[in-house]
Write a structure and sequence with these properties.
Elements: H1 3-22, H2 37-51, H3 66-91, H4 103-115, H5 118-135, H6 142-148, H7 150-166, H8 172-184, E1 187-188, E2 193-194, E3 199-201, E4 207-208, E5 213-214, E6 219-221, E7 225-227, E8 245-246, E9 251-252, E10 257-259, E11 264-265, E12 270-271, E13 276-277, E14 286-288, E15 294-296, E16 302-304, E17 312-313
Parallel strand pairs: 1-4, 2-5, 3-6, 4-7, 5-8, 6-9, 7-10, 8-11, 9-12, 10-13, 12-14, 14-17
Antiparallel strand pairs: 15-16
Length: about 325
């Protein structure tokens, strides 16, 4: 430690501590009431083992001992998640977010209800995996999809986080989906409602907002935004449907933006790349941009035209 820093350290400590105490939006100084990010990631890894036994966590599991391993994992999840849920409930206790009974009782109820959803989550994830395999000709096996596809990683964490969101657990669901976002580049808010056989191909840059509703057998590509038209209303829009609805069997190609809480994309619609939509589209339509004029430079410039592929051109 050089002399300049040594002479200034007390002043730095005082100024930084003062900023912590005086800023009106400061983070709680009682860290025991905040979730631990490392522990939440550990819980995610344990839950993935529960969803896909043999793929993650302990391997060489056989049918004769699977109950034993499930029990081990459940106990570890229960212990870790109970502590984290208890923390956030204590941190978020306020008159507008009441719950009956003690924090311990509410934590116990939440953990039991959440873990009881695991079989249903596994069932719907199986349809997501199958949709990825059926929809991607480059996929060699279901194993490859479970191990390596970012869309399945993001969807599995979303489906877990969504159940905690429904149970009104603060902070943790958002942390879980943002962790998936940081790993995959896919941003799915835990509050979104997504049906079965959901497939995100490639995935980077996908954004799915909190009040989005997605039906069954929907496929979207990288760079798709399912967003809000305007957030100038800020917190006054909390709880208001701000994001679009996609009915069953919709396909949205890369770079498209579907915006607005009143926008409904009808059953079977196909939306082309780079389209921006803020109004509803009727069932069965195909929506594309008008083709730009392309020039191919060779020995002599040539016009290059393409035929539109859709019946809704914007």
């Amino acid at each position: 430690m050089n002399n300049i820093f040594h002479n200034q350290i007390n002043r730095l400590i005082s100024e930084i501590a003062y900023s912590h105490r005086e800023l009106p939006l400061r983070i709680s100084l009682d860290s025991s009431l905040l979730p631990n990010s490392d522990t939440i990631i550990e819980i995610i890894q344990l839950l993935r083992e529960l969803l896909f036994p043999g793929y993650f966590g302990k391997q060489n599991i056989i049918n004769a001992t699977i109950e034993y391993r499930i029990g081990e994992v459940l106990i570890e999840i229960y212990e870790k998640l109970s502590e984290q849920v208890s923390r956030v409930l204590r941190h978020h206790v306020n008159p507008n977010n009441p719950f009956s009974g003690s924090v311990e009782q509410e934590t116990e109820r939440i953990i039991y209800e959440f873990l009881s959803k695991i079989p249903a989550i596994r069932h719907v994830l199986a349809t997501d995996v199958q949709a990825a395999f059926d929809g991607d000709p480059s996929a060699n096996s279901v194993d490859e999809i479970i191990f390596s596809y970012p869309g399945i990683f993001a969807a599995s964490i979303y489906r877990l986080a969504h159940e905690l969101y429904v149970l009104k657990v603060p902070l943790i669901p958002r942390f879980m989906t943002e962790y998936a976002h940081s790993v995959t580049g896919i941003d799915i808010h835990a509050g979104a409602t997504i049906g079965s056989s959901f497939f995100i191909d490639h995935g980077t840059g996908v954004v799915i907002g909190e009040t989005t509703v997605i039906g069954d057998r929907v496929k979207i590509y990288h760079g798709v935004t399912l967003g809000a038209l305007s957030l100038r209303g800020g917190q006054s829009l909390n709880g208001v449907k701000r994001h679009p609805t996609l009915e069953d069997d919709v396909t949205i190609y890369s770079g498209a933006s579907i915006l607005g809480g009143e926008t409904v994309i009808g059953k079977g619609v196909v939306i082309g790349s780079n389209v921006s939509i803020s109004k509803s589209v009727p069932a069965g339509a195909k929506v594309t941009m008008k083709n730009p004029e392309l020039i191919i430079q060779g020995r002599a410039p040539q016009e290059f035209t393409q035929d539109p592929i859709g019946d809704w051109v914007i």
